[in-house]
Amino acid sequence: DAGITQSPRHKVTETGTPVTLRCHQTENHRYMYWYRQDPGHGLRLIHYSYGVKDTDKGEVSDGYSVSRSKTEDFLLTLESATSSQTSVYFCAISEVGTGGNQPQHFGDGTRLSIL
Amino acid sequence: RKEVEQDPGPFNVPEGATVAFNCTYSNSASQSFFWYRQDCRKEPKLLMSVYSSGNEDGRFTAQLNRASQYISLLIRDSKLSDSATYLCVVNPTNDYKLSFGAGTTVTVRA
Q1: How many other CB atoms sit within 10 Å of the CB of residue B36?
Q2: What is the pLDDT of residues A45-86, one digit of tens each?
Q3: Residue B99 pLDDT > 70
Q4: Which chain B residue shows the shortest CA-CA distance from A30?
Q5: Distance between CA A75 and CA A79 in Å, rounded?
Q6: Hey, how many other C-beta atoms are within 10 angstroms of the C-beta on A64?
Q7: Which of A106, A110, A112, A113 best tests the B interface by mutation, with the highest count of B CBs <10 A?
Q8: Are residues A107 and A27 in contact, defined by beta-carbon separation less than 8 angstroms?
Q9: What share of chain B is helix, strand, coil (3-state, %, to 5)?
Q10: Interface of B with A in 3-42 (CB under 8 A)
Q11: Which chain A residues touch B101 with a CB distance below 8 Å?
């Protein structure tokens, strides 16, 4: 399995609080991604990173920010959590930018509940 | 229209049966295709890439039909351990972005 660790694995918090999720990889892959998965939807990209300090928005980026200060770490922050952000969050990595049949590999996920 | 659409199923099949299902994609310029499997409350795991000529990995066969814009997955001699949700994944623009289907659930019964 790809060396990807997400923390925390589970979190329950209240509306309006800040939340930071961490993704740590040991594969030295350049690309890292944050997705959310909700019932009835495929995984939806929140933000991605193509290098240290290089990030860009995905399709559902509102309410989320990211940072990547080191190759191995990609942080996802909910500045002021809302109940609509209750979801399962997956981090993924890929060696290159998923062109030319390069797949992504996923971490175990973080189950986040916003009450 | 969603970029990737799948029949959610569930497909309930007995052990040993063959099960097949498709996934359609909307962007004719899509370059890369994958099947992932996802077990309940687990992360998606790559099952196989899908090549233009079709490809096989043990009991699993994937096909790509560019003219009709769909990919298929066939599972032969189903095992109980094949019970999972199968995600169709397409790279529409040959860059970082993958589009995921919502998944097809397969349940194999003894």
Answers
A1: 25
A2: 999 999 999 999 999 999 999 999 999 999 999 999 999 999
A3: yes
A4: B96
A5: 12
A6: 20
A7: A106
A8: no
A9: 5, 55, 45
A10: 4, 31-32, 34, 42
A11: 42
**How far apart are alpha carbons A7 and A109 in whole angstroms?**
8
ω into A8 cis (within 30 of 0): yes
CA pair distance A109, A38, nearest whole angstrom: 12
Q: How many CB atoms lie within 10 A of CB B70?
A: 16
pLDDT in tens, B32-85: 899 999 999 999 999 999 988 889 999 999 999 999 999 999 999 999 999 999
d(CA A11, CA A64): 16
Interatomic CA distance for residues B19 and B107, integer angstroms: 10
Q: Do A103 and B46 touch (CB under 8 A)?
A: yes
Backbone torsion region of residue A30, taken as left when φ is above 0, otherwise alpha when ψ lies between -120 and 50, otherwise beta: alpha
CA angle, residues A62, A23, A68, in degrees to nearest 5? 65
Size of chain B, expressed as the number of residues it contains:
110
Radius of gyration over every alpha carbon of chain A, rounded to an integer in angstroms: 13
Nearest chain A residue to B98, by CA: A98
